[in-house]
Specification:
heterotrimer; A alpha+beta; B mainly alpha; C mainly alpha; A: alpha+beta; seven-stranded antiparallel β-sheet; two-stranded parallel sheet; 5 helices; B: mainly alpha; 15 helices; about 60% helix; globular
Chain lengths: ~230, ~350, ~220
C-alpha cells in the first residue's frame, strides 16, 4: 500500500479543493432545488395535519389560525415563537365565530415524552377535548389515553378557571389515582396506566398555567377571525 | 449420557446423583404444589398445567430433532420447566398463550443456548417474561380461589380462541365468588394500601398465580429436596433472608408505608421463585461464597422492584438478573488457596 | 478495472449479490439501527427501505460517475457530502409525500446518512466500477435491505397488531403481542430470521459437502 502510494504522483492541493468545491456546489444546488420544490406540498401537508388535529378536539370548527400569546398580548404566529410566549391555535366555525382554543402540552411519560393537544373553551373556562400529538407509550397499556372512554370523559369539562389575580389557575390540574376523582380540576387516572395518565395531566397543567394568564385578558382580539 | 448408562441396574455405584435422578425428584417435589393449585383453582388450573407441560415437552422434542441432538426428554428437565412455568402463570391463563409461553421458554430460554446445562437463565422464567411482555393484560387477570363451581366449569378465559383476546371475566369472577376484587395482595398493597393477613396466605384464599399461594407446601417440598441434597439450601435461605432483612429496614424507616417482612415473604411468587427457580443448578453460581451473594442480590432486588418499580411483583426479573450475573459472581468468588500448588486441593 | 484472474461479474450477478448472497440485513448484518427501530410495521419498513434505496442508488451513481476525478485524499469527505445531500433531498420528499410516515420514521431518515451500507457501497464498489454496474449493484443492495426490513416489519406488524399494511387480518378480537412492537420484539424477530437464513444456507451446503466427501472417497 505505502509502496503504491509513493509511486503515484501526489495530488496537487488545488485539485482537491477544486473537486470538493465543485461537488459541494452541485450538492448545494440539489438541496436547494429539493427544498424549493417541496416547500408548497410540505406546508399544505402541515396545515392539513394541524387542522385535522385541532378539529378533532374542537368539533364543529372549520378553520384554524395560529397565534402566540406573550407579555405584549396576542399576535399572529410568525416563524419563531418569542421568548416567554406560548403558541396556540384558535378555531373558528363556518361564519367566523370563535369556537375554541387549542394548545399543546408535553410531559415525560413511561417511555418518552407524551405530547398532547387540548381544547380550551373560553366561555366555560374549561378544557373540553384531548388529542395525542405523539407518544411512544406501551401499546395496550399507556396508549389507552386515546381510547379509554372513561379517561376521555375527564376532558368533557375539566375545570381550568383562572385565579382571581389572573396569574395562574385557581386549581392546578392534576391526575389522581384511579377512582378517586372528586373535583372538576382532577383527572381520574387509568388503572394500570398511571404514569401515562399523570404525564397527560402534568403536560396540560404546565401549558395551561403558562398560556391561560396570557390569553384570557386578550380574548376579544381573537373574535371575528376571517 | 450414552444409552449404556441408562441400562445399568442397581445397585448404583455411590457417586453424585445423575441429572435424571435430580430432575425426577424435583418433579416429585413439584407435584404436591401442582395438586394444591388444582384443588384451589379447579379445572382451569389443571388444563393450564397439562397444556403448558405438553407445550414444553413438544418444543423440546422439536428442537432435539432440529438440532440433531439426542433425545433429552428422559431427563425430565422440560417437564420441570413446564410445571414451573404453569405454576407461575395465572390459573386461568388462556391455553393458547400457555403454549406460546412454553415454546418461548424452551426456544429462547434453552434451545438457543445449546440445551440442558448451557442455558444462562431459567427457561421457565424466560417463558414467563416473554408472555408478560407480550400479553400484559392476560397475565394480570386472576380468578378467585376456592370458588364453588371450580370443578364443574372452566374459567371463560381458558378456552380463548388462539390469537384472540380473552373475554372480560370480571362479571364471571364476581358471580363465582362474592366480593372478588381481581387484584393480587401485592397490587392491593401497592395501589390501595390494603394488607392481606398471614392467615389469608396460609389458607391459600388469595388471588395469585397457580402455584404461589401455598407457602408452607413450597417450603416442605423444598426441604425434601434440600435434605436429599438435590438442591443447594443456601440459595432459598439467602433470598428469603435478604428479602426479609430489606423489608425490615424499610419498615423501620416508614412503618406506615412499607409492609412487614412476613407479608413480603408470603405474598407473590418469592417462595416459589426462591425454592424452585433460583436454585436451578445450571443458572446459579457454584462457589459457596457466590451462592450467598447471588441469593442476597435476588432478595434485595425483589423487594426493590416491588417497592419502587412499576410492576407489583419483582421476583421474576430479580431472578433473571441474578441468573445473568451468576457467571460473573462465580468468577470473582473463586476460592483462593494460599500456599498450595494449584489444582491439588481446593 | 478488472483484477486479473477474477471473472467479470454479469449484471444479474451484481443485482443478486445484494438481494441474496450479500444481503445487507441477513448476511452482512449491517445498518441494524434503522432495521430494529423502524420495523414495527410493514409500511414503515417499506418507506425506510425505499428511502435508503433511493439514497443508495443516487449517491452510487454520482460517486461512480465522478470516481476518476475524485482525488483519493478527499474521497471520504466527498462521498459523505454526496450521501448527505441525497438524504436531505429524501427528507424533504417524504415530508411532501406523507407527514404521517415522516413522523413515524422520525430521526431515522436523517440517520440514513450514517448507514454503513451506503458509505460501504460507495467505497467498496462504486469507486471502482462504471456507473451502470454500480447502480445495478446498489439497486440489488437496496432491494435486499428493503426485503430484510419488510421481513421484520411484516412479522412484527402481524403479531404485534394483527395487521399487515394497516389491514386487519384477524378481526377486532385479535390479541396483539405487545412485545413485538417493543424493542425486544425487534431482536427476537431479527434473530429468528437470521436463524432461518443460516439454517437454509447450511442445509444447502450440506448435500454439496457430502457429495464432495463421497467423490474423494
Amino acid at each position: 500500500m505505502s509502496e503504491a502510494a509513493s509511486l503515484q504522483p501526489a495530488t496537487p492541493s488545488a485539485a482537491m479543493i477544486r473537486t470538493l468545491g465543485i461537488v459541494a456546489t452541485v450538492c448545494g444546488i440539489l438541496i436547494v432545488t429539493a427544498y424549493q420544490g417541496t416547500l408548497e406540498p410540505v406546508a399544505a401537508n402541515k396545515k392539513l395535519a394541524l387542522e385535522r388535529a385541532v378539529f378533532k378536539v374542537i368539533p364543529g370548527a372549520s378553520s384554524v389560525r395560529e397565534f402566540v400569546a406573550g407579555s405584549g398580548g396576542i399576535e399572529p404566529a410568525g416563524a419563531v415563537v418569542p421568548q416567554g410566549a406560548v403558541k396556540f391555535y384558535a378555531a373558528y366555525d363556518a361564519v367566523g365565530a370563535l369556537k375554541g382554543v387549542a394548545a399543546e402540552g408535553a410531559a415525560k411519560g413511561y417511555a418518552d415524552t407524551v405530547r398532547v393537544l387540548y381544547a380550551y373553551d373560553t366561555a366555560k373556562q374549561a378544557i373540553t377535548g384531548l388529542g395525542v400529538v405523539s407518544m411512544r407509550e406501551t401499546p395496550g397499556i399507556g396508549d389507552k389515553i386515546i381510547t379509554d372512554a372513561a379517561f376521555l370523559k375527564n376532558f368533557v369539562a375539566l375545570d381550568a378557571t383562572l385565579a382571581a389575580d389572573m396569574k395562574s389557575l385557581a386549581h392546578a390540574i392534576k391526575t389522581v389515582k384511579h377512582g378517586s376523582k372528586q373535583n372538576a380540576w382532577e383527572i381520574d387516572a387509568i388503572a394500570g396506566a398511571t404514569v401515562t395518565s399523570k404525564a397527560v395531566g402534568k403536560g396540560i397543567n404546565e401549558s395551561a398555567q403558562k398560556l391561560l394568564p396570557l390569553l384570557v385578558p386578550h380574548l376579544d382580539k381573537l373574535q371575528g377571525g376571517k | 449420557m450414552t444409552p449404556r448408562i441408562e441400562l445399568r441396574t442397581s445397585p448404583h455405584v455411590v457417586k453424585g446423583a445423575s441429572v435424571e435422578t435430580i430432575m425426577f425428584n424435583v418433579v416429585l417435589a413439584l407435584l404436591p404444589i401442582a395438586a394444591f393449585s388444582v384443588w384451589q383453582y379447579g379445572l382451569s388450573a389443571l388444563a393450564s398445567l397439562i397444556t403448558v407441560v405438553l407445550a414444553c415437552i413438544g418444543s423440546e422434542r422439536l428442537f432435539n430433532k432440529l438440532s440433531g441432538q439426542h433425545n433429552t426428554l428422559s431427563d425430565w428437565s422440560a417437564t420441570i420447566t413446564g410445571l414451573l412455568l404453569a405454576l407461575s402463570l395465572p390459573p386461568a391463563f388462556p391455553l393458547w398463550m400457555g403454549v406460546v409461553a412454553g415454546f418461548a421458554a424452551i426456544a429462547l430460554g434453552k434451545a438457543l443456548f445449546g440445551g440442558i446445562g448451557f442455558n444462562v437463565m431459567n427457561p421457565a422464567l424466560v417463558g414467563r417474561a416473554f408472555v408478560q411482555a407480550a400479553f400484559p393484560v392476560a397475565i394480570t387477570t386472576w380468578i378467585p380461589a376456592f370458588s364453588p363451581q371450580r370443578f364443574s366449569e372452566f374459567a371463560p378465559t381458558t378456552f380463548t380462541t388462539p390469537l384472540m383476546q380473552p373475554p372480560d371475566i370480571s362479571v364471571w369472577a364476581k358471580q363465582a365468588l362474592d366480593g372478588f376484587t381481581g387484584a393480587t395482595p401485592l397490587a392491593r398493597w401497592k395501589f390501595e394500601n390494603v394488607l392481606a393477613t398471614p392467615m389469608d396466605f396460609i389458607s391459600g384464599s388469595v388471588t395469585a398465580s397457580a402455584g404461589e399461594t401455598s407457602a408452607i407446601l413450597i417450603l416442605l417440598c423444598g426441604a425434601y429436596l434440600a435434605v436429599r441434597k438435590f438442591m443447594d439450601w443456601r440459595i432459598p435461605v439467602a433470598i428469603l433472608g435478604s428479602a426479609a432483612l430489606t423489608a425490615q429496614v424499610f419498615q423501620m424507616i416508614d412503618p406506615a408505608r412499607y409492609p412487614d417482612p412476613l407479608f413480603v415473604l408470603l405474598s407473590g411468587g418469592i417462595m416459589l421463585g426462591a425454592v424452585f427457580m433460583a436454585s436451578d443448578m445450571a443458572t446459579s453460581p457454584v462457589t459457596p461464597k457466590g451462592v450467598w451473594i447471588y441469593g442476597a442480590l435476588i432478595g434485595v432486588l425483589t423487594v426493590m422492584i416491588r417497592y419502587f418499580g412499576g410492576l407489583t411483583e419483582g421476583v421474576m426479573y430479580a431472578i433473571l438478573i441474578g441468573n445473568a450475573l451468576a457467571p460473573l459472581i462465580d468468577q470473582v468468588t473463586q476460592p483462593k488457596v494460599f500456599g498450595q500448588v494449584k489444582g491439588k486441593k481446593a | 478495472m478488472a483484477i486479473p484472474g477474477q471473472k467479470q461479474r454479469s449484471n444479474v450477478e451484481e443485482l443478486l449479490e445484494g438481494i441474496w448472497k450479500q444481503n445487507p440485513v441477513f448476511v452482512m448484518v449491517l445498518g441494524m439501527c434503522p432495521v430494529l427501530a423502524v420495523s414495527v410495521s410493514a409500511v414503515n419498513a417499506l418507506s425506510m427501505g425505499l428511502a435508503t434505496t433511493f439514497v443508495l442508488v443516487a449517491s452510487t451513481l454520482l460517486v461512480s460517475a465522478l470516481r476518476n476525478v475524485i482525488p483519493k485524499e478527499v474521497r471520504i469527505a466527498t462521498y459523505i457530502l454526496i450521501i448527505a445531500t441525497f438524504v436531505t433531498v429524501v427528507d424533504y420528499l417524504i415530508q411532501a409525500i406523507s407527514l404521517a410516515v415522516y413522523d413515524a420514521l422520525g430521526a431515522f431518515i436523517q440517520l440514513i446518512v450514517v448507514n454503513c451500507i451506503i458509505l460501504g457501497r460507495a467505497e467498496a464498489h462504486a469507486s471502482k466500477n462504471p456507473p451502470l454496474k454500480s447502480v445495478i449493484n446498489a439497486l440489488g443492495m437496496g432491494a435486499g435491505f428493503t426485503i430484510g426490513l419488510l421481513a421484520l416489519g411484516s412479522v412484527r406488524e402481524i403479531l404485534g397488531a394483527g395487521k399487515l399494511f394497516g389491514i386487519a387480518l384477524f378481526g377486532p378480537e385479535f390479541q396483539p403481542w405487545v412485545v413485538m412492537v417493543l424493542p425486544p420484539g425487534g431482536f427476537f424477530v431479527l434473530g429468528a430470521w437470521l436463524l432461518l437464513f443460516n439454517w437454509l444456507n447450511i442445509r444447502k451446503a450440506k448435500p454439496a459437502a457430502i457429495q464432495s466427501a463421497e467423490a474423494r472417497a
